Protein backbone atom coordinates (compact mmCIF):
# COMPACT_ATOMS: atom_id res chain seq x y z
CA UNK A 1 0.00 0.00 0.00
CA UNK A 2 1.23 3.48 -0.92
CA UNK A 3 2.37 5.69 1.93
CA UNK A 4 2.65 8.86 -0.13
CA UNK A 5 0.04 10.96 -1.91
CA UNK A 6 -0.13 11.07 -5.71
CA UNK A 7 1.18 14.63 -5.42
CA UNK A 8 4.25 13.53 -3.50
CA UNK A 9 4.83 10.69 -5.96
CA UNK A 10 4.59 13.17 -8.86
CA UNK A 11 1.95 10.92 -10.38
CA UNK A 12 0.24 11.99 -13.60
CA UNK A 13 -3.06 11.71 -11.79
CA UNK A 14 -2.10 14.35 -9.24
CA UNK A 15 -3.00 16.70 -12.08
CA UNK A 16 -6.74 17.40 -12.17
CA UNK A 17 -6.66 18.13 -15.91
CA UNK A 18 -5.24 14.68 -16.53
CA UNK A 19 -8.11 13.17 -14.52
CA UNK A 20 -10.67 15.18 -16.46
CA UNK A 21 -9.03 14.05 -19.72
CA UNK A 22 -9.42 10.42 -18.74
CA UNK A 23 -13.03 10.98 -17.72
CA UNK A 24 -13.85 12.69 -21.02
CA UNK A 25 -12.01 10.44 -23.44
CA UNK A 26 -11.99 6.70 -24.12
CA UNK A 27 -15.36 5.04 -23.66
CA UNK A 28 -17.10 8.42 -23.32
CA UNK A 29 -15.44 9.91 -26.38
CA UNK A 30 -16.11 6.97 -28.70
CA UNK A 31 -19.76 6.84 -27.72
CA UNK A 32 -19.59 3.48 -25.99
CA UNK A 33 -21.08 5.15 -22.92
CA UNK A 34 -23.13 8.39 -22.83
CA UNK A 35 -21.54 11.41 -21.15
CA UNK A 36 -23.22 12.55 -17.95
CA UNK A 37 -24.46 15.63 -19.78
CA UNK A 38 -26.16 13.61 -22.52
CA UNK A 39 -27.60 11.20 -19.96
CA UNK A 40 -29.17 14.15 -18.13
CA UNK A 41 -30.53 15.49 -21.41
CA UNK A 42 -31.95 12.07 -22.31
CA UNK A 43 -33.96 12.13 -19.10
CA UNK A 44 -34.82 15.86 -19.31
CA UNK A 45 -32.90 16.59 -16.16
CA UNK A 46 -30.33 19.05 -17.53
CA UNK A 47 -29.02 21.36 -16.29
CA UNK A 48 -28.75 20.63 -12.57
CA UNK A 49 -29.31 23.90 -10.75
CA UNK A 50 -28.26 24.89 -7.25
CA UNK A 51 -31.01 25.67 -4.79
CA UNK A 52 -30.65 27.66 -1.58
CA UNK A 53 -27.54 26.65 0.36
CA UNK A 54 -28.41 24.39 3.28
CA UNK A 55 -25.07 22.70 3.88
CA UNK A 56 -21.77 24.51 4.03
CA UNK A 57 -18.97 21.98 3.70
CA UNK A 58 -15.55 23.34 4.55
CA UNK A 59 -12.37 21.47 3.73
CA UNK A 60 -9.88 22.76 6.29
CA UNK A 61 -6.87 21.04 4.73
CA UNK A 62 -5.58 18.03 2.86
CA UNK A 63 -3.16 16.87 5.56
CA UNK A 64 -4.08 13.50 7.03
CA UNK A 65 -2.47 10.86 9.22
CA UNK A 66 -3.68 8.16 6.81
CA UNK A 67 -3.08 7.47 3.11
CA UNK A 68 -6.24 5.57 2.15
CA UNK A 69 -6.13 3.85 -1.18
CA UNK A 70 -9.50 5.22 -2.32
CA UNK A 71 -9.07 8.82 -1.10
CA UNK A 72 -10.60 11.34 -3.50
CA UNK A 73 -8.72 14.16 -1.78
CA UNK A 74 -5.30 12.56 -2.28
CA UNK A 75 -4.79 13.40 1.38
CA UNK A 76 -1.82 12.31 3.44
CA UNK A 77 0.87 13.36 5.90
CA UNK A 78 2.81 14.95 3.05
CA UNK A 79 0.06 17.40 1.99
CA UNK A 80 0.73 20.96 3.12
CA UNK A 81 -2.53 22.65 2.09
CA UNK A 82 -4.00 23.95 5.34
CA UNK A 83 -6.72 26.56 5.84
CA UNK A 84 -5.44 29.71 7.53
CA UNK A 85 -7.13 31.42 10.46
CA UNK A 86 -7.89 34.35 8.18
CA UNK A 87 -9.85 32.15 5.75
CA UNK A 88 -11.58 30.50 8.71
CA UNK A 89 -12.67 33.93 9.89
CA UNK A 90 -14.14 34.60 6.44
CA UNK A 91 -15.98 31.27 6.70
CA UNK A 92 -17.30 32.22 10.15
CA UNK A 93 -18.79 35.41 8.72
CA UNK A 94 -20.66 33.31 6.15
CA UNK A 95 -21.69 30.65 8.69
CA UNK A 96 -23.32 33.35 10.80
CA UNK A 97 -25.21 34.90 7.89
CA UNK A 98 -25.86 32.24 5.26
CA UNK A 99 -28.82 30.57 6.93
CA UNK A 100 -27.33 27.12 6.21
CA UNK A 101 -28.64 24.60 8.74
CA UNK A 102 -25.60 22.29 8.48
CA UNK A 103 -21.91 22.98 8.83
CA UNK A 104 -19.72 20.11 7.70
CA UNK A 105 -15.96 20.15 8.38
CA UNK A 106 -13.84 17.79 6.37
CA UNK A 107 -10.26 17.28 5.19
CA UNK A 108 -7.76 15.45 5.26
CA UNK A 109 -8.02 14.98 8.97
CA UNK A 110 -9.62 18.28 9.99
CA UNK A 111 -8.24 17.88 13.50
CA UNK A 112 -4.69 18.30 12.14
CA UNK A 113 -5.33 21.91 11.19
CA UNK A 114 -3.61 23.94 13.96
CA UNK A 115 -6.61 26.28 14.19
CA UNK A 116 -9.18 23.47 14.25
CA UNK A 117 -10.19 23.82 17.90
CA UNK A 118 -10.46 27.57 17.74
CA UNK A 119 -12.60 27.25 14.62
CA UNK A 120 -14.93 24.69 16.19
CA UNK A 121 -15.31 26.82 19.31
CA UNK A 122 -16.20 29.90 17.27
CA UNK A 123 -18.44 28.09 14.78
CA UNK A 124 -20.37 26.33 17.54
CA UNK A 125 -21.49 29.75 18.79
CA UNK A 126 -23.26 30.47 15.50
CA UNK A 127 -26.28 28.36 16.42
CA UNK A 128 -25.98 25.96 13.50
CA UNK A 129 -28.51 23.14 13.78
CA UNK A 130 -26.20 20.33 12.71
CA UNK A 131 -22.45 20.77 13.15
CA UNK A 132 -20.58 17.86 11.56
CA UNK A 133 -16.91 16.99 11.87
CA UNK A 134 -15.73 14.19 9.58
CA UNK A 135 -13.21 12.33 11.69
CA UNK A 136 -11.22 9.38 10.43
CA UNK A 137 -11.23 7.91 14.00
CA UNK A 138 -7.55 6.91 14.04
CA UNK A 139 -6.55 10.54 14.56
CA UNK A 140 -8.04 10.28 18.06
CA UNK A 141 -5.48 7.57 18.87
CA UNK A 142 -2.64 8.99 16.72
CA UNK A 143 -1.10 11.23 19.36
CA UNK A 144 -1.70 12.11 23.01
CA UNK A 145 -2.75 15.63 22.05
CA UNK A 146 -5.82 14.17 20.32
CA UNK A 147 -6.93 11.81 23.13
CA UNK A 148 -9.38 14.37 24.48
CA UNK A 149 -11.14 14.88 21.13
CA UNK A 150 -14.24 12.91 22.18
CA UNK A 151 -14.68 15.26 25.17
CA UNK A 152 -13.96 18.27 22.98
CA UNK A 153 -16.56 17.16 20.42
CA UNK A 154 -19.07 16.59 23.22
CA UNK A 155 -18.45 20.02 24.73
CA UNK A 156 -19.32 21.68 21.44
CA UNK A 157 -22.16 19.32 20.56
CA UNK A 158 -20.40 18.24 17.38
CA UNK A 159 -22.01 15.56 15.23
CA UNK A 160 -19.24 13.05 14.54
CA UNK A 161 -19.23 11.28 11.16
CA UNK A 162 -16.53 8.65 10.85
CA UNK A 163 -15.22 6.36 8.16
CA UNK A 164 -15.44 2.63 8.67
CA UNK A 165 -15.23 0.58 5.45
CA UNK A 166 -16.07 -2.77 7.03
CA UNK A 167 -16.69 -4.51 10.30
CA UNK A 168 -13.79 -6.87 9.68
CA UNK A 169 -10.12 -6.08 10.17
CA UNK A 170 -8.95 -7.47 6.81
CA UNK A 171 -11.16 -5.34 4.58
CA UNK A 172 -10.61 -2.20 6.63
CA UNK A 173 -6.83 -2.41 6.77
CA UNK A 174 -6.56 -3.24 3.07
CA UNK A 175 -8.26 0.01 2.15
CA UNK A 176 -6.99 2.28 4.92
CA UNK A 177 -3.66 0.81 6.09
CA UNK A 178 -2.39 -1.69 8.64
CA UNK A 179 -3.61 -1.13 12.16
CA UNK A 180 -6.41 1.21 11.12
CA UNK A 181 -9.13 -1.24 12.15
CA UNK A 182 -7.88 -1.77 15.72
CA UNK A 183 -7.24 1.91 16.18
CA UNK A 184 -10.72 2.80 14.82
CA UNK A 185 -12.33 0.32 17.21
CA UNK A 186 -10.50 1.91 20.14
CA UNK A 187 -11.59 5.38 19.02
CA UNK A 188 -15.21 4.26 18.65
CA UNK A 189 -15.10 2.86 22.19
CA UNK A 190 -13.80 6.21 23.45
CA UNK A 191 -16.64 8.00 21.65
CA UNK A 192 -19.22 5.57 23.05
CA UNK A 193 -17.73 6.08 26.52
CA UNK A 194 -18.59 9.79 26.52
CA UNK A 195 -22.08 9.10 25.14
CA UNK A 196 -21.57 9.30 21.37
CA UNK A 197 -23.66 6.89 19.33
CA UNK A 198 -25.61 5.49 22.26
CA UNK A 199 -29.32 4.85 21.68
CA UNK A 200 -31.36 7.96 22.53
CA UNK A 201 -28.16 10.00 23.02
CA UNK A 202 -28.24 13.46 21.43
CA UNK A 203 -24.52 13.06 20.70
CA UNK A 204 -24.70 11.86 17.12
CA UNK A 205 -22.20 9.33 15.83
CA UNK A 206 -22.67 8.15 12.25
CA UNK A 207 -20.41 5.91 10.21
CA UNK A 208 -19.49 6.19 6.56
CA UNK A 209 -19.11 3.05 4.50
CA UNK A 210 -17.14 3.16 1.24
CA UNK A 211 -16.78 -0.06 -0.76
CA UNK A 212 -13.23 -1.38 -0.53
CA UNK A 213 -12.85 -2.06 -4.23
CA UNK A 214 -14.28 -1.58 -7.71
CA UNK A 215 -17.91 -2.17 -6.84
CA UNK A 216 -20.88 -0.08 -5.72
CA UNK A 217 -22.29 0.03 -2.21
CA UNK A 218 -25.22 -2.25 -1.53
CA UNK A 219 -28.46 -1.27 0.17
CA UNK A 220 -27.68 1.26 2.91
CA UNK A 221 -30.27 -0.03 5.38
CA UNK A 222 -29.13 -3.64 4.99
CA UNK A 223 -25.48 -2.66 5.44
CA UNK A 224 -26.37 -0.61 8.50
CA UNK A 225 -28.08 -3.62 10.02
CA UNK A 226 -25.02 -5.81 9.39
CA UNK A 227 -22.60 -3.18 10.72
CA UNK A 228 -24.67 -2.65 13.85
CA UNK A 229 -24.97 -6.33 14.59
CA UNK A 230 -21.28 -7.08 14.05
CA UNK A 231 -19.91 -4.07 15.92
CA UNK A 232 -22.23 -4.69 18.88
CA UNK A 233 -21.58 -8.41 19.09
CA UNK A 234 -17.84 -8.29 18.49
CA UNK A 235 -16.86 -5.06 20.26
CA UNK A 236 -19.94 -3.78 22.11
CA UNK A 237 -19.80 -0.64 19.94
CA UNK A 238 -22.90 1.38 19.04
CA UNK A 239 -23.57 4.11 16.50
CA UNK A 240 -26.58 5.85 14.99
CA UNK A 241 -26.68 5.78 11.18
CA UNK A 242 -24.59 4.31 8.41
CA UNK A 243 -24.03 6.38 5.26
CA UNK A 244 -23.21 4.21 2.25
CA UNK A 245 -21.13 6.32 -0.12
CA UNK A 246 -20.09 5.43 -3.66
CA UNK A 247 -16.43 5.89 -4.52
CA UNK A 248 -16.15 8.48 -7.29
CA UNK A 249 -13.67 7.77 -10.08
CA UNK A 250 -11.22 10.56 -9.30
CA UNK A 251 -7.80 10.96 -7.71
CA UNK A 252 -6.49 7.90 -5.86
CA UNK A 253 -9.57 5.81 -6.55
CA UNK A 254 -9.22 6.56 -10.26
CA UNK A 255 -5.54 5.63 -10.00
CA UNK A 256 -6.56 2.33 -8.39
CA UNK A 257 -9.25 1.66 -11.02
CA UNK A 258 -6.79 2.17 -13.87
CA UNK A 259 -3.94 0.22 -12.26
CA UNK A 260 -6.23 -2.72 -11.50
CA UNK A 261 -7.81 -2.59 -14.98
CA UNK A 262 -11.24 -1.99 -13.49
CA UNK A 263 -11.84 1.51 -14.83
CA UNK A 264 -14.09 0.67 -17.79
CA UNK A 265 -16.15 -1.92 -15.95
CA UNK A 266 -16.60 0.45 -13.04
CA UNK A 267 -17.80 3.24 -15.33
CA UNK A 268 -20.21 0.78 -16.96
CA UNK A 269 -21.55 -0.13 -13.51
CA UNK A 270 -22.08 3.54 -12.65
CA UNK A 271 -23.78 4.36 -15.95
CA UNK A 272 -25.99 1.27 -15.84
CA UNK A 273 -27.06 2.15 -12.30
CA UNK A 274 -27.97 5.75 -13.30
CA UNK A 275 -31.09 6.62 -11.38
CA UNK A 276 -33.01 9.70 -12.57
CA UNK A 277 -34.74 10.06 -9.21
CA UNK A 278 -31.35 10.40 -7.50
CA UNK A 279 -30.57 13.42 -9.70
CA UNK A 280 -33.21 15.55 -8.00
CA UNK A 281 -31.51 15.07 -4.64
CA UNK A 282 -27.80 15.17 -5.45
CA UNK A 283 -25.94 17.07 -2.77
CA UNK A 284 -24.59 19.79 -5.05
CA UNK A 285 -28.11 21.22 -5.22
CA UNK A 286 -28.03 22.32 -1.58
CA UNK A 287 -24.34 22.17 -0.60
CA UNK A 288 -21.50 24.58 -1.10
CA UNK A 289 -17.95 23.28 -0.79
CA UNK A 290 -15.18 25.59 0.41
CA UNK A 291 -11.54 24.68 -0.19
CA UNK A 292 -8.63 25.19 2.23
CA UNK A 293 -7.80 28.43 0.40
CA UNK A 294 -11.37 29.71 0.46
CA UNK A 295 -12.52 28.99 -3.09
CA UNK A 296 -16.06 27.77 -3.76
CA UNK A 297 -17.06 24.54 -5.47
CA UNK A 298 -20.27 22.59 -6.07
CA UNK A 299 -18.90 19.66 -4.07
CA UNK A 300 -15.71 18.26 -2.55
CA UNK A 301 -15.14 16.19 -5.71
CA UNK A 302 -15.27 19.24 -8.00
CA UNK A 303 -12.91 20.90 -5.54
CA UNK A 304 -10.38 18.13 -6.11
CA UNK A 305 -10.89 18.34 -9.87
CA UNK A 306 -10.42 22.12 -9.61
CA UNK A 307 -13.78 22.81 -11.25
CA UNK A 308 -14.91 26.07 -9.57
CA UNK A 309 -18.53 27.16 -9.16
CA UNK A 310 -20.18 28.64 -12.18
CA UNK A 311 -20.88 31.96 -10.46
CA UNK A 312 -19.45 35.45 -10.11
CA UNK A 313 -18.92 34.68 -6.43
CA UNK A 314 -15.83 32.49 -6.56
CA UNK A 315 -14.38 32.89 -3.08
CA UNK A 316 -15.80 32.69 0.43
CA UNK A 317 -14.93 36.39 0.85
CA UNK A 318 -17.32 37.11 -2.05
CA UNK A 319 -20.10 34.85 -0.74
CA UNK A 320 -23.45 35.98 -2.02
CA UNK A 321 -26.52 33.79 -1.73
CA UNK A 322 -28.27 35.52 -4.64
CA UNK A 323 -25.32 35.01 -6.98
CA UNK A 324 -24.88 31.38 -6.00
CA UNK A 325 -28.50 30.26 -5.97
CA UNK A 326 -29.69 29.00 -9.33
CA UNK A 327 -26.19 28.53 -10.71
CA UNK A 328 -25.66 25.63 -13.10
CA UNK A 329 -23.75 22.79 -11.45
CA UNK A 330 -20.45 21.97 -13.14
CA UNK A 331 -20.51 18.34 -14.27
CA UNK A 332 -18.33 15.64 -15.76
CA UNK A 333 -18.44 11.86 -15.87
CA UNK A 334 -17.49 11.50 -12.17
CA UNK A 335 -21.01 12.77 -11.40
CA UNK A 336 -22.36 9.33 -12.31
CA UNK A 337 -21.02 8.31 -8.88
CA UNK A 338 -23.67 10.39 -7.12
CA UNK A 339 -26.58 9.22 -9.27
CA UNK A 340 -25.94 5.47 -9.26
CA UNK A 341 -28.45 3.19 -7.58
CA UNK A 342 -29.92 4.81 -4.49
CA UNK A 343 -27.68 7.82 -5.14
CA UNK A 344 -24.75 8.93 -3.04
CA UNK A 345 -23.87 12.02 -1.04
CA UNK A 346 -21.85 12.94 2.02
CA UNK A 347 -25.06 12.09 3.92
CA UNK A 348 -25.31 8.67 2.27
CA UNK A 349 -27.94 7.55 -0.20
CA UNK A 350 -30.35 10.19 -1.49
CA UNK A 351 -33.47 8.25 -2.49
CA UNK B 1 -14.91 -14.18 -35.50
CA UNK B 2 -15.20 -14.57 -31.77
CA UNK B 3 -12.71 -17.19 -30.64
CA UNK B 4 -14.26 -18.07 -27.30
CA UNK B 5 -17.74 -19.22 -26.36
CA UNK B 6 -17.92 -16.87 -23.37
CA UNK B 7 -17.37 -13.12 -23.50
CA UNK B 8 -17.63 -11.18 -20.19
CA UNK B 9 -19.22 -8.29 -22.13
CA UNK B 10 -22.17 -10.54 -23.01
CA UNK B 11 -23.41 -10.40 -19.42
CA UNK B 12 -24.32 -6.74 -19.95
CA UNK B 13 -26.48 -7.82 -22.91
CA UNK B 14 -28.54 -10.32 -20.91
CA UNK B 15 -31.55 -7.99 -21.01
CA UNK B 16 -31.57 -8.18 -24.81
CA UNK B 17 -32.88 -11.74 -24.54
CA UNK B 18 -36.35 -10.18 -24.40
CA UNK B 19 -35.90 -8.58 -27.83
CA UNK B 20 -36.64 -11.86 -29.61
CA UNK B 21 -39.50 -12.81 -27.34
CA UNK B 22 -40.80 -9.90 -25.36
CA UNK B 23 -43.49 -11.79 -23.50
CA UNK B 24 -41.43 -14.69 -22.21
CA UNK B 25 -38.37 -12.52 -21.65
CA UNK B 26 -40.34 -10.05 -19.54
CA UNK B 27 -41.96 -12.86 -17.60
CA UNK B 28 -38.56 -14.37 -16.89
CA UNK B 29 -37.04 -11.11 -15.63
CA UNK B 30 -40.08 -10.33 -13.55
CA UNK B 31 -39.86 -13.75 -11.97
CA UNK B 32 -36.11 -13.47 -11.52
CA UNK B 33 -36.36 -10.11 -9.77
CA UNK B 34 -39.15 -11.33 -7.52
CA UNK B 35 -37.14 -14.36 -6.46
CA UNK B 36 -34.31 -12.22 -5.14
CA UNK B 37 -36.49 -9.86 -3.11
CA UNK B 38 -36.40 -10.14 0.67
CA UNK B 39 -38.91 -12.74 1.87
CA UNK B 40 -38.58 -15.48 4.45
CA UNK B 41 -34.91 -15.37 3.42
CA UNK B 42 -32.92 -12.13 3.38
CA UNK B 43 -31.49 -10.76 0.12
CA UNK B 44 -28.06 -11.46 1.58
CA UNK B 45 -28.87 -15.14 2.13
CA UNK B 46 -30.28 -15.41 -1.37
CA UNK B 47 -27.16 -13.85 -2.81
CA UNK B 48 -24.99 -16.49 -1.11
CA UNK B 49 -27.23 -19.30 -2.37
CA UNK B 50 -27.02 -17.82 -5.88
CA UNK B 51 -23.23 -17.67 -5.61
CA UNK B 52 -22.98 -21.31 -4.61
CA UNK B 53 -25.39 -22.42 -7.34
CA UNK B 54 -23.52 -20.29 -9.91
CA UNK B 55 -20.51 -22.46 -9.22
CA UNK B 56 -22.29 -25.79 -9.26
CA UNK B 57 -23.90 -24.69 -12.55
CA UNK B 58 -20.45 -23.50 -13.66
CA UNK B 59 -21.92 -20.36 -15.17
CA UNK B 60 -19.14 -17.77 -15.55
CA UNK B 61 -21.61 -14.93 -16.02
CA UNK B 62 -23.39 -15.85 -12.80
CA UNK B 63 -20.10 -16.20 -10.92
CA UNK B 64 -19.04 -12.69 -11.97
CA UNK B 65 -22.45 -11.27 -11.15
CA UNK B 66 -22.89 -12.85 -7.72
CA UNK B 67 -19.31 -12.32 -6.60
CA UNK B 68 -19.78 -8.62 -7.25
CA UNK B 69 -23.24 -8.71 -5.70
CA UNK B 70 -21.76 -10.30 -2.57
CA UNK B 71 -19.04 -7.65 -2.28
CA UNK B 72 -21.66 -4.93 -2.63
CA UNK B 73 -23.60 -6.44 0.23
CA UNK B 74 -20.50 -6.54 2.44
CA UNK B 75 -20.34 -10.33 2.28
CA UNK B 76 -16.83 -11.46 3.26
CA UNK B 77 -14.49 -13.76 1.35
CA UNK B 78 -14.82 -16.29 4.17
CA UNK B 79 -18.62 -16.36 3.82
CA UNK B 80 -18.36 -16.70 0.04
CA UNK B 81 -15.93 -19.61 0.23
CA UNK B 82 -18.04 -21.40 2.85
CA UNK B 83 -21.07 -21.06 0.60
CA UNK B 84 -19.07 -22.56 -2.27
CA UNK B 85 -18.10 -25.52 -0.17
CA UNK B 86 -21.77 -26.19 0.49
CA UNK B 87 -22.27 -26.33 -3.29
CA UNK B 88 -19.13 -28.42 -3.74
CA UNK B 89 -20.18 -30.80 -0.98
CA UNK B 90 -23.57 -31.37 -2.59
CA UNK B 91 -21.92 -31.86 -5.99
CA UNK B 92 -19.44 -34.41 -4.64
CA UNK B 93 -22.10 -35.98 -2.42
CA UNK B 94 -24.36 -36.29 -5.42
CA UNK B 95 -21.57 -38.10 -7.25
CA UNK B 96 -20.73 -40.38 -4.41
CA UNK B 97 -24.27 -41.24 -3.42
CA UNK B 98 -24.62 -42.82 -6.86
CA UNK B 99 -21.98 -45.20 -5.63
CA UNK B 100 -24.74 -46.98 -3.81
CA UNK B 101 -26.32 -47.72 -7.17
CA UNK B 102 -22.96 -48.99 -8.40
CA UNK B 103 -22.62 -51.19 -5.34
CA UNK B 104 -26.18 -52.50 -5.77
CA UNK B 105 -25.46 -53.32 -9.38
CA UNK B 106 -22.17 -55.04 -8.57
CA UNK B 107 -23.80 -57.04 -5.81
CA UNK B 108 -26.60 -58.03 -8.15
CA UNK B 109 -24.33 -59.07 -11.01
CA UNK B 110 -21.51 -60.74 -9.16
CA UNK B 111 -21.82 -64.28 -8.01
Automatic annotation (TrEMBL), chain A:
Cofactor(s) of this protein: [4Fe-4S] cluster
SUPFAM superfamilies reported in the protein's UniProt record: Radical SAM enzymes
Stored Pfam families: DUF3641 (PF12345), Radical_SAM (PF04055)
UniProt keyword list: Iron, Iron-sulfur, Metal-binding, S-adenosyl-L-methionine
Domain Radical SAM core: 58-196
Ranges of residues in domain Arsenosugar biosynthesis radical SAM protein ArsS-like C-terminal: 216-349
Domain of life assignment: Bacteria
One annotated GO molecular function: metal ion binding
PANTHER family (alphabetical): FE-S OXIDOREDUCTASE (PTHR43728:SF1), SLR0304 PROTEIN (PTHR43728)
NCBIfam families named among the record's database cross-references: rSAM_SeCys (TIGR04167)
Protein name: Arsenosugar biosynthesis radical SAM protein ArsS
Encoding gene (name): arsS
UniProtKB/TrEMBL annotation, chain B:
A GO molecular-function descriptor: peroxiredoxin activity
Residues in Carboxymuconolactone decarboxylase-like domain copies: 23-101
Entry coiled-coil feature ranges: none
One Pfam family named in its UniProt record: CMD
InterPro entries: AhpD-like, AhpD_core, AlkhydPrxdase/COmuclacdeCOase, CMD-like
PANTHER family in the record: ALKYL HYDROPEROXIDE REDUCTASE AHPD, BLR3452 PROTEIN
Name of the molecule in the record: Carboxymuconolactone decarboxylase family protein
Species: Snuella sedimenti
Organism ancestry: Bacteria, Pseudomonadati, Bacteroidota, Flavobacteriia, Flavobacteriales
